[in-house]
Design brief:
Elements: E1 24-31, H1 36-47, E2 52-58, E3 63-68, H2 75-84, E4 88-89, E5 92-99, H3 104-115, E6 120-126, E7 131-136, H4 143-152, E8 156-157, H5 166-199, H6 214-232, H7 234-245, H8 251-271, H9 287-311, H10 313-320, E9 325-330, E10 333-338, E11 347-350, E12 359-365, E13 367-370, H11 372-375, E14 381-383, E15 388-389, E16 394-395, E17 400-406, H12 412-425, H13 431-459, H14 464-478, H15 481-501, E18 504-506, H16 509-515, E19 520-524, H17 525-529, E20 535-540, H18 549-560, H19 566-577, E21 586-591, E22 595-600, E23 603-608, H20 610-615, H21 624-632, E24 636-642, E25 645-653, H22 660-669, E26 673-677, H23 682-692, E27 696-698, H24 706-715, E28 720-724, H25 730-735, E29 738-742, H26 747-752, E30 755-757, H27 763-798, H28 802-805, H29 811-830
Parallel strand pairs: 19-26, 19-28, 26-27, 28-29, 29-30
Antiparallel strand pairs: 1-3, 1-4, 2-3, 5-7, 5-8, 6-7, 9-10, 9-11, 11-17, 12-15, 12-17, 13-14, 13-16, 18-30, 20-25, 21-22, 22-23, 23-24, 24-25
């Protein structure tokens, strides 16, 4: 193990078993093995996973080689198993922007192509962001392989030039796509209007003005509709052709086949009408249907593209916060340089009203800084030498100089943007069902459409071919994997963006989904529920004593002057706040675990606990009851004795954060059980729990045992979140179903967590759960409507209502409904921006 507790090395086990031809191989680089027994332990664990056919771990090469059946085992299980044993996995992660995906079926194809590459550990393809996030072993596979796999499926990768910003390039391409859609849609509308005029020429009485023969009318419709079919709708053909080249189908296939069927039938009826004429019926054309379908689907895509642009507003806002330039001191003079050129160690000057360009530590000057854009906290924060400042925050009042400590991708803002982008590209488990259905959706729909055609052609009323064709087109057009593909990622994008705007950073879709099921939250006490720094809360004097509180404080603080003990520092700080002049102690003596003894102005001063006073032979009966009461309130009482007489008690406590009670009450209203974990004794823990309203306490828990206590709660069947801020909280944060780190704490705690609260406000825990529940509820609504839409309307398009009510679905209405289904899903996701989480 990483703690060096491995037993004596065992011989490295290598199993040379036979593997089946369907087995897939993956090499996993491993960190933290310190001996051969580590390798054996990992190997045994991997061999115990169902679906693993063979596994060997090489200690020298620091890697595991696993042969497994991909239908029964997933690489994520191997990695989790290795990590649960206490080792690390060395993998790389890359985000690839992709062009050409139009529906959930496209997502499934790209995901399958990338997942099939050896060395790929996990893949998440997001239709809303049009990106693929790939975790992989760089020793086995790389970007060249990813590009090849994507292009072989008929899609393109957005290429970047050195130094080019991916988000900016994607925005330019989205804007260009929006302009192109507008241009094509406008052209389509302009051409479709006269097309409909020709269709209804006789019915609106225009034949009385100009009598157009039937076949001439059909020919004019053909001339007008052809550019709609092959210019306005050309993108559907290119998408379908690319898919066909790779022996696949997608949304473009359905549209291209459906509209082409209407177009080809109509062209044939225009030039060879006798082929379709039967007794009592004359041939009709459906140019208007083909044109209307294309124009309505383009309208849907135009509205969808606009709405999807709004889902990434959070990222745009965050990127807009960045300062463009910085004023640094170089060679003794101030110069303005681009923020990208600031280096660690540079001294940066910031004047009132200017943005702080990078992260750093104040060296000179005082000011107040508005950090609301990062933390969501509206009250400006005072800054003095030694305080940290965050890049992109706004300097309000004074001028100060600070030393740059984090620049470029290391700044807090850059890390926030990266985390939000990763979260927006991730998928929660709830999305897997939609992905599985989408992967077979288009072929199934084409099968249903073909069956519909055959049934109507052989068993339908006359004109059977016309009925068969129109219902075939309606089924092809009504089916919408777009709505399925957008249902989850749009909600995730808006939800994580909303969180980022409020100082809540959610690491991924899985954390977001798990958070909505949380029923137990464990709070670390020190620094999480409390401020983490003791303060003087009470100064008590025996009844009848004439000594003043200030005099007791002077003796105690003078005795503790120079002390590094937290309780002593709290007493000195209190005296300084009261403006009391301190006197240097003489004959200073520390009695560990009991107190201190010193001489102040010739008088002997004792400061310590009850046992210390008794050992000194001093009677404490006059104040014993008060000391007990203070202890029951979770405070530490310290007796103050001067020249052998008890003069009073000073109580010190780590006080609760102002918002702690409010946050705990809010969690109770949400139906969440609250637990406090602390190393304090039970009496102190109970006192604090009573003050804050905690349901359950876990007292006298050693730092290394916190993770075990979390595991014990999980064994009770609870879904547990852990809230902490310190290094010793990291194992417990990792063990919990959802780890929530207070952002004012350590980087290690933040790294181990699933959710980070930037400003350290406990109400953020409530907000995170509220946001999670709202987002998952929104995803379920989207999935319901996407499934319901297809489940209900595909049979209607096939004509199941015709025998009972004589109702058929016009393909034009099918196109309108299909386009609106995607718009409905995205618009519903955008409602999350208005959800109140505070």
């Amino acid at each position: 193990m990483q703690d060096g507790s491995c037993p004596l090395p065992e011989p490295e086990v290598k199993r040379q078993g036979k593997v089946s031809t369907r087995a897939k191989r993956i090499d996993i680089p491993i960190r933290g093995m310190s001996c051969a027994s580590c390798a054996s332990r990992i190997q045994r664990a991997l061999l115990g996973i169902e679906g693993v056919e063979d596994a060997s771990v090489n200690f020298a090469a620091e890697k595991a080689t696993v042969f497994y059946d991909p239908s029964r085992a997933r690489v994520e299980e191997f990695i989790k198993t290795i990590q649960d044993l206490g080792y690390g996995v060395s993998t790389s992660r890359i985000t690839i922007p992709i062009k050409g995906m139009s529906c959930a079926a496209c997502v499934g194809k790209v995901q399958k192509a990338l997942s099939s590459l050896e060395g790929v550990i996990s893949v998440s393809v997001n239709l809303a962001t049009e990106r693929a996030t790939v975790e992989y072993n760089p020793l086995q596979v790389g970007m060249r392989d990813f590009k090849k796999a994507i292009k072989e499926r008929g899609y393109d990768v957005v290429e970047l030039t050195p130094g080019e910003d991916i988000v900016e390039k994607e925005k330019r391409q989205r804007d260009e796509e929006l302009r192109r859609l507008k241009r094509k849609f406008t052209t389509g509308v302009v051409l479709t209007i006269p097309l409909f005029v020709l269709v209804y020429w006789d019915r609106i009485g225009l034949s009385a003005i100009v009598d157009i023969p039937r076949q001439v009318n059909f020919f004019l419709q053909l001339i007008i509709e052809t550019p709609v079919q092959f210019w306005v709708g050309w993108q559907f053909y290119t998408g379908a052709i690319k898919a066909a080249r790779h022996r696949t189908t997608n949304m473009n296939t359905l549209i291209a086949v459906g509209t082409s069927a209407a177009y080809i039938y109509s062209v044939t009826a225009t030039f060879f009408p006798s082929l379709f004429e039967i007794k009592g019926y004359t041939a009709e054309v459906y140019f208007d249907t083909a044109a209307a379908i294309i124009v309505l689907i383009l309208l849907g895509r135009l509205l969808e593209a606009r709405a999807r642009g709004q889902t990434s507003e959070a990222i745009k806002k965050l990127m807009g916060l960045q300062a463009k330039t910085a004023r640094v001191i170089r060679e003794g003079r101030e110069i303005d340089i681009p923020v990208e050129e600031v280096e660690i160690g540079d001294i940066v000057v910031v004047r009132p009203g200017e943005k702080i360009p990078v992260d750093g530590v104040v060296k000179e000057g005082h000011s107040t800084v508005d950090e609301s854009m990062i933390s969501g906290e509206s009250i400006p924060v005072e800054k003095k030498p030694g305080d940290e400042v965050i890049g992109a925050t706004l300097n309000r009042t004074g001028t100060f100089k600070f030393e740059a400590t984090k620049v470029g991708r290391e700044t807090m803002l850059a890390q926030i943007i990266n985390m939000v982008q990763e979260a927006q590209g991730s998928k929660p488990p709830i999305a897997r069902l939609a992905d599985r259905i989408a992967s077979v959706f288009v072929p199934v729909v084409m099968g249903v459409a073909t069956l519909t055609f055959l049934v109507w052609y052989f068993f339908g009323p006359e004109p059977a071919l016309t009925y068969a064709l129109l219902n075939f087109i309606a089924v092809m057009i009504i089916a919408c994997p777009c709505a399925l593909g957008l249902a989850t990622p749009t909600s995730i994008m808006v939800g994580t963006g909303k969180g980022a705007e409020n100082g809540i950073l959610i690491r991924g879709g899985e954390a977001l989904e798990t958070a909505h099921r949380i029923n137990t939250i464990v709070f670390d006490k020190t620094g999480t529920l409390t401020r983490g720094e003791p303060v003087v809360t009470d100064i008590l004097i025996p009844g009848g004593s004439s000594i003043a509180e200030s005099e007791i404080l002077k003796y105690a603080a003078s005795a503790e002057k120079g002390s590094e003990h937290p309780l002593g520092e709290a007493i000195v700080k209190k005296a300084q706040e009261e403006g009391i002049s301190l006197i240097g102690p003489t004959d200073f003596q520390t009695i560990p675990g009991h107190g201190i003894k010193a001489r102040i102005e010739g008088r002997e001063v004792l400061l310590g606990n009850e046992e210390f006073m008794k050992d000194a032979g001093l009677g404490i009966s006059s104040m014993e009851a008060e000391a007990r009461r203070l202890s029951e309130e979770g405070k530490t009482p310290m007796y103050v004795a001067v020249d052998g007489a008890i003069k009073g008690i000073i109580a010190v406590a780590d006080t609760l954060k102002e918002e702690a009670v409010q946050a705990i009450q809010a969690l109770r209203r949400l139906g969440v059980e609250t637990v406090m974990i602390t190393g304090d004794n039970k009496r102190t823990a109970q006192a604090i729990a009573r003050q804050v309203g905690i349901d359950r306490i876990l007292a006298e828990v050693l730092p290394e045992d916190k993770a075990k206590e979390v595991k014990r709660l999980q064994d009770e069947g609870k879904i547990v979140a852990m809230v902490g801020d310190g290094i010793n909280d990291a194992p417990a944060l990792a063990q919990a179903d959802v780890g929530i780190a207070i952002g004012t704490g350590t980087d290690i705690a933040m790294e181990a967590s699933d959710i980070t609260l930037i400003r350290g406000d406990l109400n953020g825990v409530v907000s995170a759960i509220t946001l999670s529940r709202a987002t998952i509820r929104n995803i379920k609504q989207n999935l319901f409507w996407a499934f319901a839409y297809n489940t209900i309307l595909i049979p209607v398009a096939a004509g199941v209502l015709f025998p009972f009510f004589g109702i058929l679905l016009n393909p034009m209405f099918a196109a309108a409904a299909m386009g609106m289904s995607s718009v409905t899903v995205v618009t519903n996701a955008l409602r999350l921006r208005k959800v109140r989480i505070r």
